[in-house]
Design a protein that fits this description.
CATH topology of the largest domain: Rossmann fold
CATH superfamily of the largest domain: Cell division protein FtsQ/DivIB
Helix content: 25-40%
Radius of gyration: 26 Å
Order of helices and strands: HEHHEEEEEEHHEEEHEE
Number of strands: 12
Largest sheet: 9 strands, mixed
Length: about 210
């Protein structure tokens, strides 16, 4: 009899917890957001206040928030007794490109995620058809993201008319002819000391035979 009563009590407790107000959502905690507002995250989450916490579908909620263009990844957790925690990782702009509808921001994975002015330090990218599947876009991003900090900080623009003709334009107007995205680390080790020499165009596309013009 005691076992039966305990079982009934357990079932009743689970039922009350799942359907009742015992663990009702009363707050949403949003972490990691800067470009995306808390209000946008909460609205997109679509978890109503008062929803029993065990009934919150965290996977579905995360999928909704992940659809926000500026969000790279998201995790939604139940935090008992009454909180939903949302942790977002935002996309970081690496390059921008100009289009008919404005200036587009693109991250290191070639995701075009916003049309707005670029933050300071984001490099202008010039390719014929900037997009996720475009080979020239991929080549430009491959070179740019592999550059060491001392060289990367000097780059104002990256051009990739073809995948083997990448070039860097520095803030002071000098140009580094890079060639393909292969051997970027080696090319950078050649380019940095080369840039201490007078010149306008520095060609490291064949890093064993660099030239200055």
């Amino acid at each position: 009899m005691l076992i039966l009563l305990a079982l009934v009590a357990s079932v009743a407790f689970v039922a009350v917890s799942y359907f009742g107000p015992l663990w009702a959502v009363s707050s949403v905690q949003v972490n990691g957001n800067a470009a995306v507002s808390r209000e946008q995250v909460v609205q997109t989450l679509q978890v109503a206040e008062g929803t029993p916490l065990p009934r919150v579908d965290t996977d579905a909620a995360a999928a909704r928030v992940a659809a926000i263009p500026k969000v790279a990844s998201v995790r939604v957790q139940r935090v008992y007794p009454s909180t939903v925690r949302v942790t977002v990782e935002e996309r970081v702009p690496v390059v921008f490109f100009d289009a008919a509808d404005g200036t587009h921001l693109m991250d290191a994975e070639a995701v075009d995620f916003a049309v707005e002015p670029p933050p300071p330090g984001v490099v202008r990218m010039v390719v014929a058809s900037p997009s996720f599947g475009n080979l020239e876009t991929r080549a430009a991003l491959s070179v740019l993201t592999a550059l060491p900090g001392p060289l990367r900080s000097q780059v104002a623009q990256i051009d990739a008319p073809t995948i083997s003709a990448v070039s860097l334009t520095l803030y002071d107007g000098r140009v580094v002819v890079w060639g393909s995205s292969e051997d970027t680390e080696y090319k950078a080790s050649i380019a940095l000391p080369l840039l201490t020499q007078p010149g306008q165009t520095y060609d490291v596309s064949s890093p064993d035979l660099p030239t200055i013009r």
